[in-house]
């Protein structure tokens, strides 16, 4: 499958991205500051867009600059791109001489010329990619995560492992990444000198595709296959990404065959990972599959108490209970809320109490009241139009199915934070352009057709409860 790659690369199609690129650059210049921008980011040129993997090439004049930008700015570039072009899933940073015959698009000139100022060099990153905060000590266990927590501890012990791989799955912000990092730290302690590789599946893909473009995949393969403990986070990301999956499968096979440890996380179980090769899924399900459920009230309380203590904040029990009751979606939001309250208290010199907390978190509390999912939208739309959910995600084009499908896509865009490609995937693996078309179509129809507008309003009312 790897040699299909050339077909995925459409050099011409970077042109429509030129406008987005101009916006990305403007945003980066604002966010990173003029000096950093001028020194590191201004020389970047837009290369090809890889439609299959949603990767956009960022091309630098020299290998040194490419390496530097890759290690210091790749995440920021990705976020900036996603903010203006949802079909972009990540960036590939390349040196110009690694890109043969690529049509490069220069962004528009900067709005104003700026004086050249001596450049501060960004701090190099630490050697380990493990977050020091994410350890077993700081991970609170409860009913929701007991199995995953103890399996993770076992995976980090020295001696033979009882299962391999360990597959941890659960919803967003429930502590999967935290557990992976904790395994890494504990493994480092139990086996000093061991080679530990932690990588998000997104980074796996970006590094692999970059290595392919640079015709140098050996280094990439060697790095992963020499790991004593390999951890790949958020593996759902490789769904539908052909050549990346092929490489991932080889990596998994080699790591397992050489008796090295493999830990994987995903937002759903292996059986539910649509768009991932069955050979990969069967290997991932071979060891222990443990889920992390949403933290229940008691666990949320315990986590909050610990986080407040770690931050050195005095948070009254009344506030802890209030937050645990009100912010039930995920631990990340809970932690974010607590941090925000603590930060405001420090900045304003006020003590944390209930009134202060409600004041500071006003918008967040409202937003967390109700979260609509695409599944729910599909069910409601099917009930409303009396069609089957299978039809909604099928290829059928009959008006009686196609219109409700467009309405469901429109609602998914309006009521959930999901990106266009994600919505497309949820509707039978459709392209993001189909979703855009549906959204525009329904917007137009709502303005001209009172019946459709009435249907949409009724659905929004039921979904938002
Ligand atoms: N049981 C827990 N104990 C302590 N902290 C937790 C726990 N669960 C989650 N957290 C904290 O919540 C935040 C989000 O967790 P994490 O990033 O691990 O979530 P995730 O499941 O990997 O989410 P995603 O799927 O979106 O990547 C982190 O700061 C983490 O420390």
UniProtKB/TrEMBL annotation:
The keyword ATP-binding applies. Keywords: ATP-binding, Cytoplasm, DNA replication, DNA-binding, Lipid-binding, Nucleotide-binding. Residues 346-465 are annotated as: Domain IV, binds dsDNA. ATP binds at residues 173, 175-177. Signal peptide: none annotated. The keyword Cell inner membrane does not apply. One of its GO terms (cellular component) is cytoplasm. Plays an essential role in the initiation and regulation of chromosomal replication. ATP-DnaA binds to the origin of replication (oriC) to initiate formation of the DNA replication initiation complex once per cell cycle. Binds the DnaA box (a 9 base pair repeat at the origin) and separates the double-stranded (ds)DNA. Forms a right-handed helical filament on oriC DNA; dsDNA binds to the exterior of the filament while single-stranded (ss)DNA is stabiized in the filament's interior. PANTHER family: CHROMOSOMAL REPLICATION INITIATOR PROTEIN DNAA. This is Chromosomal replication initiator protein DnaA.
């Amino acid at each position: 499958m790897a040699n299909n790659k050339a077909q995925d690369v459409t050099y011409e199609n970077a042109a429509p991205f030129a406008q987005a690129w101009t916006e990305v650059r403007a945003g980066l210049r604002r966010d990173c500051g003029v000096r950093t921008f001028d020194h590191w980011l201004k020389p970047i040129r837009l290369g090809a867009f890889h439609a299959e993997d949603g990767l956009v090439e960022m091309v630098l004049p020299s290998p040194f600059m490419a390496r530097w930008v890759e290690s210091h700015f790749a995440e920021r570039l990705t976020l900036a791109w996603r903010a203006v072009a949802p079909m972009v899933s990540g960036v590939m940073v390349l040196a110009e001489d690694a890109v043969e015959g690529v049509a490069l698009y220069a962004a528009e000139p900067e709005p104003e010329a700026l004086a050249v100022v001596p450049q501060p060099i960004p701090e190099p990153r630490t050697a380990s990619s493990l977050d020091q905060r994410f350890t077993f000590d700081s991970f609170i266990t409860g009913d929701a995560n007991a199995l995953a927590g103890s399996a993770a501890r076992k995976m980090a012990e020295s001696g033979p492992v009882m299962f391999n791989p360990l597959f941890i799955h659960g919803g967003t912000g429930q502590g999967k990444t935290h557990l992976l990092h904790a395994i890494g730290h504990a493994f480092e302690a139990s086996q000093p000198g061991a080679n530990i590789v932690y990588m998000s599946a997104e980074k796996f893909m970006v590094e692999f595709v970059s290595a392919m473009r640079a015709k140098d995949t050996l280094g990439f393969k060697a790095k992963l296959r020499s790991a004593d403990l390999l951890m790949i986070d958020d593996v759902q990301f490789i769904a539908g990404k052909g050549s990346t999956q092929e490489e991932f499968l080889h990596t998994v096979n080699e790591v397992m065959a050489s008796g090295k440890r493999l830990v994987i996380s995903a937002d759903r179980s292996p059986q539910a990972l649509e768009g991932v090769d069955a050979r990969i899924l069967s290997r991932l399900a071979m060891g222990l599959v443990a889920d992390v459920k949403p933290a229940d009230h008691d666990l949320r309380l315990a986590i909050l108490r610990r986080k407040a203590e770690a931050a050195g904040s005095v948070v009254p029990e009344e506030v802890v209970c209030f937050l645990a009751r009100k912010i039930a979606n995920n631990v990340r939001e809970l932690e974010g809320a607590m941090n925000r309250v603590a930060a405001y208290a420090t900045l304003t010199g006020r003590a944390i109490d209930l009134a202060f907390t409600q004041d500071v978190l006003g918008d967040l509390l409202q937003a967390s009241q109700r979260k609509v999912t695409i599944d729910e939208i599909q069910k409601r739309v099917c009930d409303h139009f009396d069609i089957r959910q299978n039809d909604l995600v099928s290829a059928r084009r009959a008006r009686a199915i196609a219109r409700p499908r467009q309405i469901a896509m429109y609602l998914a865009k309006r009521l959930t934070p999901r990106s266009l490609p994600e919505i497309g995937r949820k509707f039978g693996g459709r392209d993001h352009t189909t979703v855009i078309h549906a959204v525009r179509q329904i917007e137009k129809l709502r303005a001209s057709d009172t019946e459709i507008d009435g249907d949409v309003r009724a659905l929004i009312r039921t979904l938002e409860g």
